[in-house]
Automatic annotation (TrEMBL):
GO process terms (BP): methylation
Name of the protein described by the UniProt record: Modification methylase
Region Disordered: start-end pairs: 348-383
Listed Basic and acidic residues bias regions: 356-383
Length: 511
């Protein structure tokens, strides 16, 4: 059995006792409703009296269709009795220094419509269904608490930050489904990153800022600390995320890529010790490069296993003297790039695949830019180089190459077999259409769309959708986007030039 001193020391020295807000729990759990029906849920780092995890599952016990809810508290919880004055099943006052468990299989509803706070209070005070003392101190690593873990289907909690490695190790050992809170820095742990690489753990939906209630004895801090009007102390972090092995929709959202590698090779230097190019920002991942790429650690929040593969950097070492890293990342002194211009220490930090502040700041700035702004910038660059597609878009000789992507290392794209039959049929229909035989002069889109000359098929930038008037134009389909059109190329060739991401439209005839 784990000793009481270990958790107590972690709580005092690390000050990692943070109490999650109800709204943050609800906002995340909303994405996983389908996983909980008929399941036993364990919250094994949660005071039954004060934890919002416990409160959430009590309030939603019937809605989620839970089979059983177990909540255990650690003996040195500093918030017991702050919100409720309770008695355990032996009618003894609940006090700090005892480990407690709440183990229930039903939550009665007084009004028959939903679980109220009064229902929860009555349940906790009930001698039959209420809170009981544990034999031990409630350490999640104790034999007593591990037995509860064995009986659970899903574990949901906010474990002590300083014991994150040990906590995840237990989840892996007993093969549990879970949804837990952690710090972004945990991604780089040698015990954690291999699990992410192997798709045994991934990030949840929330990533970034989160505020926590903290005990009264916590000392004030210069930043991200405040006391509310009720005297409650709060701390916030900008690097909080959820870790899980429950599938969710965000995990399968495709990352839209806009940048080109070829023609901009100087923006993507190669590492000296690894067979990989460096990508400074997630938004800079090139759409035409399928080899190994080193990206900021914040990429993990956007990782789609259907689109990219995360592999071990040890497998792509080009220098035999480069040591193997337990975490499998490109970082530290081996993340070297030799260029014509001597790199400064700051440059080397920017090129490393780490969780450094520079990466986080860059990605937060990039995330605030909308897809529309990026689309417009990309299309303006393309428009200066190519002609618009008119009637010749239906020529089959322009779309005979197969678009291929290969699995490589570090972070690389994987072959996608998905295709859209409807859009494929649409593209075939478009290729068979009879249209005028004219190419349109190179013009900005606004001027081009206002012209009366062309009434045939036109390939326009995707930003056209922002200006689309269904009474003026008809949308016919997409011009060669491989992820939509199966075995067609991701570009159209016109006069030897490649045009990407085009929507096929035709002007409607005036009545």
């Amino acid at each position: 059995m784990a000793k009481n001193s270990s958790l107590n020391a972690a709580s005092i020295a690390k000050q990692d006792e943070f109490y999650t807000q109800y709204k943050d729990i609800q906002n995340e759990l909303n994405h996983y409703e389908k996983h909980f029906k008929g399941k036993t849920v364990l919250c094994n780092c949660d005071d039954p009296f004060e934890s919002n995890f416990c409160k959430f599952f009590l309030r939603n016990f019937n809605y989620l269709g839970l089979k059983r809810l177990i909540c255990t508290s650690y003996s040195t919880s500093t918030v017991i009795g702050q919100q409720l004055t309770l008695f355990d099943y032996m009618n003894e006052p609940v006090v700090t220094g005892n480990g407690y468990v709440m183990d229930i299989t039903e939550v009665p509803m007084a009004n028959g419509r939903g679980v109220s706070d009064e229902d929860i209070d009555n349940l906790l005070k009930s001698k039959k269904r209420g809170v009981k003392k544990l034999k031990g101190d409630g350490d999640f690593r104790s034999d007593e608490c591990i037995e509860y873990m064995k009986e659970a289907d899903i574990v949901v909690t906010n474990p002590p930050f300083s014991l994150f490695r040990e906590y995840v190790a237990l989840l892996m050992e007993y093969d549990k489904k879970f949804l837990i809170i952690g710090n972004q820095n945990n991604i780089t742990y040698k015990e954690i990153f291999p699990l992410i690489q192997e798709n045994k753990i991934w990030l949840g939906c929330k990533f970034g800022d989160m505020a926590f209630r903290v005990p009264d004895h916590y000392e004030p801090r210069a930043t991200r600390f405040w006391i509310d009007e009720f005297g409650q102390k709060w701390r916030s972090f900008g690097t909080i995320c959820w870790y899980t092995n429950l599938d969710h929709e965000k995990r399968h959202e495709e990352l839209i890529l806009y940048k080109n590698y070829y023609g901009n090779e100087e923006d993507y230097p190669k590492y000296d010790n690894y067979d990989a190019i460096n990508v400074n920002k997630v938004a800079d991942i090139p759409k035409d490069y399928f080899e190994s790429m080193a990206v900021p650690i914040t990429y993990v929040d956007k990782h789609n296993p259907d689109q990219f593969e995360i592999v071990n950097a040890n497998d792509i070492r080009t220098n035999p003297d480069t040591p193997q890293k337990g975490h499998g990342l490109i970082k530290d002194k081996d993340a070297v790039i030799t260029t014509k211009k001597a790199l400064t220490t700051k440059d080397e930090e920017n090129y490393a695949l780490t969780d450094r502040q520079t990466d986080r700041q860059t990605d937060r700035q990039t995330d605030r830019q909308t897809d529309r702004q990026t689309d417009r910038q990309t299309d303006r660059q393309t428009d200066r180089q190519t002609h618009y597609l008119c009637e010749n878009c239906h020529q089959t000789q322009d779309v005979t190459e197969l678009w291929e992507c290969q699995s490589h290392s570090l972070i690389s794209t994987t072959q996608t077999n998905s295709s859209s039959l409807g859009l494929t049929d649409m593209s075939q229909t478009i290729r068979s259409m009879d249209t005028d035989s004219r190419l349109v002069d190179e013009k900005p889109m606004q001027e081009y769309l206002s012209r009366e000359k062309c009434s045939g098929v036109m390939g326009v930038p995707i930003t056209f959708l922002d200006k689309y008037n269904p009474e003026q134009f008809e949308i016919l389909g997409l011009a060669n986007s491989a992820r939509y059109l199966g075995n067609y190329p991701c570009y159209t060739i016109i006069d030897g030039k490649k045009i990407y991401n085009r929507i096929l439209i035709r002007r409607r005839k005036r009545q």
